[in-house]
Design a protein that fits this description.
The complex is a heterodimer of chains A (747) and B (421).
Chain A: E1 5-10, H1 15-18, H2 21-32, E2 36-40, H3 46-57, E3 62-67, E4 83-88, H4 90-94, H5 102-121, E5 136-139, H6 143-154, E6 159-162, E7 177-178, E8 189-190, H7 193-202, E9 206-209, E10 214-220, E11 223-228, E12 236-238, E13 240-243, E14 247-249, E15 266-268, H8 269-278, E16 292-299, H9 314-328, E17 333-338, H10 348-356, E18 360-364, E19 366-373, E20 376-384, E21 388-394, E22 396-401, E23 403-405, H11 410-425, H12 430-441, E24 485-487, H13 497-519, E25 535-536, H14 546-550, E26 556-558, E27 564-566, H15 576-580, E28 586-587, H16 593-602, E29 615-620, H17 624-633, E30 642-647, H18 655-663, E31 668-673, H19 687-704, E32 712-716, H20 724-739
Parallel strand pairs in A: 1-2, 1-3, 3-4, 5-6, 5-13, 6-9, 13-24, 15-22, 16-17, 16-22, 17-18, 29-30, 29-31, 31-32
Antiparallel strand pairs in A: 7-8, 10-11, 11-12, 14-23, 19-20, 20-21, 25-28, 26-27
Chain B: E1 9-13, H1 17-28, E2 32-36, H2 44-47, H3 59-72, E3 76-79, E4 82-90, E5 93-100, H4 114-118, E6 122-124, E7 133-135, E8 137-138, E9 150-151, H5 158-161, H6 164-168, E10 181-187, E11 189-192, E12 196-197, E13 215-217, H7 218-225, E14 246-253, H8 268-282, E15 287-292, H9 301-308, E16 314-318, E17 321-327, E18 332-339, E19 344-350, E20 352-357, E21 360-361, E22 368-369, E23 389-391, H10 401-420
Parallel strand pairs in B: 1-2, 1-11, 2-3, 4-22, 11-23, 13-20, 14-15, 14-20, 15-16
Antiparallel strand pairs in B: 4-5, 5-10, 6-7, 8-9, 12-21, 17-18, 18-19
Helix pairs in contact in B: 1-3, 1-10, 7-8, 8-9
The chains are: A alpha/beta (747), B alpha/beta (421).
Chain lengths: 747, 421
């Protein structure tokens, strides 16, 4: 359909009084031949909206609303089948600049130019129309997976539950009693996993495959095709995946310093569970009932040489075990040697109850060693509450070892597989030598795959830290870097059985939601509701593989030649592939190198004798843009030389925009994004980090052009530092002013 | 039901982080949600925090995404300044009566601020713990949603005595005749995400809260550190506006304590570590002391704990604080405790004391629930409830923000079950 662009200028909220509105109208009419350009005192009001609505009825299909920020009044300016482009004359212009001033007017006119160009070039996205299967697959049959399966089924979904072992129930099935998870939180509670297993087995919506692992998963959300190993059958189609593969105990073989291996009577807390479940407390060496049991907490946990984290449950597990010992063998005593007792929330009552028992002793202690003294074990500890160093004699020592997630680092496995391929090829050179080293180092990853995803970036969820495959978002805890696959339970974070079950429910909700949203053709987190998706003009592709490599979500596979093969239901619509592509062949209907490039070029660059520098600000839509709005609300002034363009993510910035801006005469470019590094705040994980890497190339270009490197800068500004943002922009303007105008201006 | 049809109707009580998450996650999975919040804005306690541990990132970043999800999802109906008076009925068909207090500002508001300029009346800013003032017509904070002004009825002088805002507003957005309204709704299930409040620390004997100016609680400390707080983010002690050279954090203030609150809130340790970082960021030379019983930083918070405590000028003292005494001439405070590791009594004088007070559950507030809702002995909503009643986040158990989100997402799924039966 032909574009019919109309422009609407709002005079409300100080805009009309501060700007030369006629000049704005002239920009629309004279520069862009816009026939319909209206002004109104309050566009967001009923009258203003019906004005636009009437024009839409009469055939306008692309409206430019020059009024407030795009973050406000979205409802007012949304019309069916109409592309709306917002031009922010309020927060970014009149609230932050001198009224009735030449420079302020020039700024408003430039923003209008950019808006009109977008309205002309961009198109309303058509939603992806993909078949979506609504079956949920749960991988792992412990309490987390069982709960995920039950809860997804109860919400009406078919469920496939895969368990590698021969039985359902996981660790909890082997425990006699658990930590209390309801009032009064004082006594160990029976484990009811047997009931849960029976309910899952009886549920018609749930198909259980025990003794089964996954040979291969291809496709993406809504259409994963899962081949089960040894099943011999056709692949099973599922829509989304909950990974609940749980945990394994930390390898006690590495705890020789705590006596493990020196005596059969130094055991782990998992072995202790088995002893307790056997019904008789006897020590492994001689079958005698131990009179004094020492529990050593944080055995290989909170320890930089072992697990650096705390598993969060071992304190309560030990309290439970001590209580069970006291109940089953009342003459035995328990000594708990801890760093900190961690029994948060109502679980404090559990700790309190244990402290009331005179046969359970707690002391803070740094355990320095456990010696085998024949029939007796000697635990040596420093800095105890009992006064200085102690040596405690015990008949049985229980090491409270932590939880290690049963994850597989998909990205590392990919490196390993790629290196193996290089070695197999056997062509000489440094590449072969490096590959041999990699194969050696990563050999432990042989057969480590769990999901066996057919993703170019690797067969499993990438891990973030300490082996946990989550994204470490506080606000969005279930997010992973593979769309439609949600890690839950102790795989996601160490936790107790109750939390793990709640996690199973949460992961199942996310899986169901991914199906619903994908079926509507919309993006999932964090660009909820976005209907646009990337389109690849593959005839111009040079097989450079940057898009495949840089996508944080593993969206793109490759054929043998290295041509990208996008799987669009995996896509989060961040535009990082678009930013990565040197040939500029990736675009969205409403966001592309061409659209943004044209907007940048639409800015009127005064010639060098005017001494009016022009700066370009490419800013993250989720953080920097709202921060700028907040600074507008506070009426904090910023430099009149800058022109801001919101971007989906800094990672979506194609360096061609920077080159275009410099060649069209911009004097400086500032990219404002989110924090990168371990505590990254980028909602697309790697966006700002990738831009930093790309900006290295930009700096090279600047050198070649004999331009100062300060002309292009990247800064990280969190959303709450809205008072600092204008200061940063102003400092940048001063710096560019000192350097002087871009010598290419006017060329 | 395979997902194309109706996913049920859910009433979510509380628009803090747990309620927001439950509402959004359920609505995006296809449910119709009514989200009721008693304040004028969504975001609850987290909106008032400076940064989250352990990433030291601002809550408004995630709120920006979540509020966009609320704004653009027609399945979510948000009612602010509203409370639930009563709930009756059975799972799958509960009737709830919602009381809506007047905002006195309608949806025509453009947040231009012309009303504020003319408003002559002021009120203590509850958002800033009363440490600053706003006009009677105010916006709770910069990125508040709904993005609309609100008038404090108690502070406003009214249309007859003043009425200046009515004249100043060019959009007819102010309506001082608005009256409270009630609305009846029917829903399948109810999620209580009523959250928590800090205790009145004045009741904690010997700790000096309310008595000494330079004893503040951890909630106030968040406001004193926030760029949009009463001091513009500069941590200054209340008595004289001086930058503190030494700060003591008193953990378990009124918590894990037979005399006050027996439960552990589970978050105050990490919160104090985070606030110690605020101090360090602004005052590189300040001495920081953390008096604790156990440091509770479970899971990967260990990384945060170890990185924070690498600080050479940060001391951990294992011992519960018994007493705090003020030197009235300087405003300085002496914190007395027994160091349980050495057995020695410690008396440490500092410029500022932060009481790490816990989270006291709001329970079900004044809502009349037919058949009642069981609470545990601490006031948290008990784990076992009738099928249509669910609790999420701190209403159920004291946990941090990440755990609230985790839990609220799972609870959202349980709320979908009734309509699938």
């Amino acid at each position: 359909m032909d574009k019919n662009v109309a422009v609407y200028l709002c005079r409300g909220c100080d805009i009309g009084g501060a700007l030369d509105m006629d000049a704005l109208k002239d920009v629309a009419a004279d520069e862009y031949d816009i026939e319909l350009c209206r002004e109104h005192d309050c566009l967001c009001g009923d009258e203003g909206r019906s004005l636009i609505a009437q024009d839409v009825t009469d055939g306008v299909n692309s409206v430019v609303v020059a009024a407030c920020s795009q973050r406000f009044m979205q409802d007012a300016f949304t019309f069916d089948s109409v592309l709306t482009t917002r031009v922010n004359l309020r927060e970014q212009v009149v609230w932050t600049h001198e009224p009735n001033d030449e420079d302020t007017d020039m700024m408003a006119q430039d923003y209008l130019r950019m808006g009109i160009v977008r309205a002309q070039k961009a198109n309303l996205p058509d939603p992806l129309q993909e078949e979506v299967d609504r079956t949920v697959m749960v991988v792992g049959g412990g309490v987390t997976g069982l709960t995920a399966a039950q809860d997804a089924a109860a919400a009406g979904h078919q469920v496939i539950l895969i368990e590698k072992g021969d039985e359902l129930g996981g660790w909890m099935k082997r425990w006699a009693k658990g930590i209390p998870h309801k009032a009064p939180y004082t006594d160990p509670q029976p484990v009811d996993v047997g009931d849960q297993i029976a309910a899952v087995r009886a549920n018609e919506k749930i198909t259980v495959h025990t003794g089964t692992s996954i040979e291969k998963i291809s496709g993406g959300p809504g259409q994963f095709d899962v081949t089960l190993r040894g099943n011999g059958a056709e692949p099973i189609r599922v829509g989304a995946i909950v990974q609940a593969t749980g945990w394994k105990p930390y390898d006690p073989g590495k705890l020789g310093h705590l006596g493990y291996g020196t005596s059969p009577d130094v055991i782990t807390n998992v072995q202790m569970e088995e002893i307790l479940a056997s019904g008789a407390i006897v020590r492994p060496s001689d079958g005698q009932t131990p009179k004094r049991i020492a529990f050593i907490q944080c055995a290989g946990s909170r320890d930089q040489d072992h697990l650096p984290y705390c598993s969060g449950v071992c304190c309560r597990a030990t309290i439970k075990q001590a209580m069970m010992v006291r109940e089953m063998a009342p003459d035995s005593e328990a000594y708990v040697l801890y760093k900190d007792i961690r029994s948060p929330g109502q679980y404090e009552a559990f700790y309190q109850r244990a402290q009331e028992d005179t046969g359970i002793f707690f002391t803070k202690a740094d355990v320095t060693g456990v010696q085998n003294g024949g029939k007796i074990l000697k635990v040596e500890a420093e800095d105890t509450l009992l006064g200085g160093n102690i040596q405690l004699e015990a008949d049985l020592v229980v090491l409270a070892t932590g939880m290690v997630p049963r994850s597989a680092d998909g990205e590392l496995i990919r490196q390993y597989v790629d290196a193996k391929a290089v070695v197999a090829k056997g062509e000489g050179g440094a590449q072969l030598e490096n590959a041999k080293v990699t194969v050696e180092e990563l050999g432990y990853l042989e057969d480590a795959e769990i999901l066996n995803l057919g993703y170019r970036q690797g067969p499993d969820l990438p891990v973030f830290k300490h082996g946990f495959p989550d994204s470490h978002f506080i606000c969005f805890p279930y997010e992973s870097r593979r769309t439609g696959i949600y890690p839950t339970g102790c795989l996601r974070a160490p936790q107790d059985a109750q939390s793990a079950q709640e996690d199973g429910s949460g992961g199942a909700l996310k899986a169901i939601q991914a199906l619903e949203v994908t079926a509507r053709g919309e993006a999932v987190h964090p660009r909820w509701g976005d209907m646009s998706y990337p389109e690849f003009a593959l005839q111009r592709c040079t097989q450079c593989k940057r898009c495949t490599e840089e996508c944080p979500f593993g969206t793109i596979n490759e054929d043998e030649k290295g041509t990208p093969q996008p799987n669009l239901t995996r896509c989060r619509r961040c535009g990082i592939c678009m930013g990565a592509c040197p040939e500029r062949i990736i675009s969205f209907k409403d966001y592309s190198p061409e659209i943004v490039g044209s907007m940048i070029k639409a800015v009127n660059i005064p010639d060098e004798f005017d001494e009016k520098p022009r700066l370009l600000g490419l800013i993250c839509e989720n953080d920097a843009y709202p921060a700028l709005d907040a600074s507008g609300l506070k009426r904090l002034k910023h430099s009149e030389w800058i022109r801001f363009v919101p971007v989906r993510c800094l990672g979506s910035v194609n360096t061609v925009w920077i080159a275009d801006a410099l060649s069209s005469g911009f004097d400086g470019i500032i990219l404002i994004g989110c924090k990168s590094g371990d505590d990254y705040q980028c909602h697309f994980i790697k966006g700002s980090e990738l831009m930093e890497t790309r900006s290295g190339n930009v700096q090279e270009k600047l050198k070649q052009l004999a331009l100062e490197e300060e002309r292009v800068q990247i800064v990280q500004v969190p959303i709450n530092e809205f008072e600092r943002l204008p200061e940063i922009v102003n400092a940048f303007a001063e710096e560019i002013d000192d350097i002087g105008l871009n010598p290419f201006k006017g060329f | 039901m395979s997902g194309n049809g109706k996913r049920g109707r859910i009433l979510v009580i509380g628009g803090g982080i747990s309620g927001l998450t439950a509402a959004i996650e359920a609505a995006e999975a296809g449910a119709d949600v009514i989200l009721v919040e008693k304040e004028a804005f969504l975001g609850g306690r987290v909106a008032r925090m400076n940064l989250y541990f352990p990433k030291m990132c601002p809550p408004t970043c995630g709120l920006e995404i979540n509020l966009r999800r609320v704004k653009t999802n027609p399945r979510i109906r948000t009612l602010t300044l509203s409370t639930v008076q009563s709930i009756s009925g059975d799972p799958g068909s509960y009737q709830a009566t919602i009381q809506k207090a007047p905002r006195f500002v309608n949806s025509r508001c453009t947040i231009c601020g012309d009303c504020v300029e003319v408003c002559p009346a002021e009120r203590p800013d509850a958002f800033n713990q009363g440490l600053s003032e706003t006009k009677a017509v105010y916006i709770p904070f910069e990125s508040a949603y709904p993005a609309r002004f609100v008038i404090d009825e108690d502070a406003c002088q009214g249309a007859d005595a003043c009425g200046k805002c009515l004249e100043a507003c060019g959009y007819g957005a102010i309506d001082l005749t608005m009256a409270p309204e009630t609305e009846e709704v029917e829903v399948d299930s109810v999620i209580w995400a009523t959250g928590w409040a800090p205790p009145d620390a004045g009741q904690f004997e010997g700790l000096g809260s309310g008595q000494y100016a330079n004893v503040v609680n951890n909630v106030t400390m968040e406001r004193l550190s926030a760029p949009n707080g009463p001091t513009g983010g500069k941590i200054l002690r209340p008595s004289d506006g001086k930058g503190p050279e030494s700060v003591a954090f008193v953990q378990c203030a009124g918590s894990r304590d037979e005399n006050y609150f027996k439960h552990c809130s589970g978050v105050c340790c990490a919160a104090s570590l985070k606030q110690a970082r605020y101090i360090r960021e602004q005052y590189p030379e300040a001495d920081i002391f953390i008096f604790y019983i156990d440091i509770r930083a479970p899971g990967r918070l260990e990384d945060f704990f170890s990185a924070t405590t690498e600080d050479e000028k940060l001391s951990l003292v294992k011992g519960k604080v018994a007493n705090i005494i003020e030197d009235s001439s300087t405003g300085n405070l002496t914190v007395e405790a027994e160091d349980t590791l050495t057995g020695r009594r410690v008396a440490q004088t500092v410029d500022l004391v932060v009481l790490a007070t816990g989270m006291i559950p709001n329970g079900i507030g004044d809502t009349q629930v037919e058949g009642g809702i069981a609470l545990d002995e601490y006031g948290f909503i008990a784990m076992e409830q009738p099928k249509g009643y669910l609790a999420a986040g701190v209403a159920k158990r004291p946990v941090d923000v990440a755990a609230c989100n985790r839990d609220a997402t799972g609870v959202a799924l349980k709320a979908l079950h009734l309509s699938a039966e």
